[in-house]
Amino acid sequence: MGKDALIDVYNDYKTIDISVLFANTQERVRQIFETTNFFEEVPRNRVFVSVSDAVDQAELEQRRKNEAIIVQMKAAPKPAVAPPVAKSVGQKSVPTGDNALMTAQSSASLATGVEFSIKDNTAKEGAIQRKNRVPSKSNIHWDDLDKTQ
Q1: Any idea what the CATH number is for the domain that residue 51 is in?
Q2: Is 22 buried (19+), middle (13-18) or exposed (0-12) by CB count in 10 A?
Q3: In whole numbers, what is the pLDDT of the chain averaged over residues?
Q4: pTM exceeding the 0.70 threshold for the entire prediction
């Protein structure tokens, strides 16, 4: 009979967490549901007289489900993030584990002779021995460039 097929559809989709709503049911169909065991298998709040009532119910259920998911996400503990690890030669600092940065010598500091501290946001000239520079053929010297900045 047709009602058994509807019950099977309802139960099959229920097992995979999909809500089935029966909408726009005629009065005669609802009477058959009342006189048979249909409402023993399918709750009464799954049968609607109009499509708009069924849509309103589906939207309400979806909103409640989303709110429950949001509450669960907020209550869940946040995963611990591992501190970053130096992976390149040019990185100027490495984590020590207690939110402090330990300066490390980089290839850039070897070439320029300037050590930059991220923790203090300062540059220290002369922290590393400067190599003698080859004189430039242009009129601009390295020391002049430092003064213009």
Answers
A1: 3.30.750.24
A2: middle
A3: 73
A4: no
